[in-house]
Design goal:
By secondary structure, the protein is of the alpha+beta class. It has one domain (5-89): Arc Repressor Mutant, subunit A, CATH 1.10.10.10. Helices cover 56% and strands 14% of the residues. The protein contains 5 helices and 3 strands.
Length: 97
């Protein structure tokens, strides 16, 4: 999978918040999809704030959301995250003098 620059920018912005990074790390460590309630319990943030952060991660395609009635669970979209990491590791930066 190859990401265009607009998608790279959206992912970078989504990952530019420390709480979102904590959420990604927490979800990544789960063997099964992570329940939204577990995220709420682990972070001292309001439910609405967590929902906002999760929406940013889902909109950037970093998380896959699974809904079961009123319950939601999330897992890392490995294909998109791997493509993003690949972009970052293979981008050559010109050195300035």
């Amino acid at each position: 999978m190859k990401l265009d620059l607009k998608k790279i920018e959206k992912i970078s912005k989504a990952l530019g918040d420390p709480f979102r990074l904590k959420m990604m790390d927490m979800i990544k460590k789960q063997k099964n999809p992570c329940q939204c309630t577990a995220i709420v319990e682990s972070l001292e943030l309001a439910q609405s704030t967590i929902s906002h952060h999760i929406k940013q991660l889902v909109d950037a395609d970093l998380l896959i959301a699974e809904k079961d009635g009123r319950n939601a669970s999330y897992q890392i979209n490995k294909e998109v995250l791997d493509a993003y990491i690949n972009f970052l590791t293979n981008t050559k930066v010109k050195k300035t003098k």
